[in-house]
Write a structure and sequence with these properties.
Order of helices and strands: EEHEHHEHEHEHHEHEHEHE
CATH superfamily: Alpha/Beta hydrolase fold, catalytic domain
Number of strands: 10
Strand content: 5-15%
CATH architecture: 3-Layer(aba) Sandwich
Radius of gyration: 17 Å
Shape: globular
Distance between the termini: 5 Å
Number of helices: 10
Largest sheet: 6 strands, parallel
Structural class: alpha/beta
CATH class: Alpha Beta
């Protein structure tokens, strides 16, 4: 029996260390967890804040290719678990048939998702309204992080999460998502008809960064697919759902779903 690899993919503004509790839990449950981070991420939050230059200019396709290369080094096709833009990347990897299953939590919208709630638009305007951010980086203040990520948790907890995990992020993925439906070959396109493993999309009912309507719209893109696609909403959760005090509820649901889909911790 060999352990099934799991690759965790963070989204904008969070360091890869934000997955550390998930990594430990999945290891305890018999998986082989990997948390490679985005290209250009420093080894720590402090390092990345001090030197954000390598992150600037990264786009969705480069980030996806980075994780595809990491997957190529593994012993078997992994489960991929992604949050926010990491959730979009997870779906792209699954569509490329590089993963055995995928869990996309509050995923950034793919090409073809038309619905853009006002709260989501307001959240990205500080970045996309300034063209210089296309090749640059942007970091949330504690106030903006609380508004977009931590709105469903106490301010004190949101501030602590900001201190612990928040890093600068490239602006380019936001431009690519905002303009996706105007270009036929957008890097945010996902192969929703590929013959591949199961997919779970998770939405947060109180999410302002990726509102539940957006997550559900992404799920609806798979309505004609013959593959296994499921949707779960946590009504009282915001965009911080994978890192705040309630992270274990999301992680346990993920583990349970994987077991039900026969993507257990070990394989022959």
């Amino acid at each position: 029996m060999t352990s099934i690899p799991v690759v965790f993919i963070h989204g904008l503004w969070l360091h890869s260390s934000s997955w550390d509790p998930w990594v430990e839990l999945f290891r305890e449950n018999g998986y082989e967890p990997h948390n490679p981070g985005w290209p250009g991420d420093g080894p720590t939050v402090a390092d990345t804040r001090a030197n954000p230059g390598p992150i600037g200019g990264l786009g969705v396709e480069e980030i996806t290719d980075h994780f595809a290369a990491a997957i190529a080094e593994l012993s078997a096709a992994p489960v991929v678990v992604g949050h926010s833009f990491g959730g979009l990347v997870a779906q792209k990897l699954l569509g490329r048939k590089l993963a055995s299953a995928a869990v996309a939590i509050d995923p950034a919208q793919m090409k073809g998702v038309i619905r853009l709630p006002l709260t989501q638009l307001l959240g990205v305007l500080p970045v996309v309204s300034n063209p210089s951010n296309y090749l640059g980086t942007h970091i949330h203040s504690k106030n903006s992080f609380q508004s977009m990520f931590g709105n469903a948790i106490p301010v004190r907890e949101s501030d602590a999460l900001h201190d612990r995990y928040v890093i600068p992020a490239p602006g380019r993925p936001l431009f690519e998502a905002a303009s996706a439906n105007f270009f036929p070959h957008s890097p945010t396109a996902v192969d929703v008809t590929a013959d591949r493993g199961p997919l779970l999309i998770v939405g947060g009912g109180e999410d302002k960064a990726v509102p539940e309507a957006s997550s559900r719209s992404s799920f609806n893109r798979y309505r004609k697919a013959s593959t296994v696609n499921e949707y779960k909403v946590f009504d009282d959760r915001g965009h911080s759902l994978v890192i705040d005090h309630g992270w274990r509820e999301i992680a346990d649901h993920t583990l349970s779903w994987l077991a039900k889909k026969n993507v257990g911790a070990t394989a022959e």
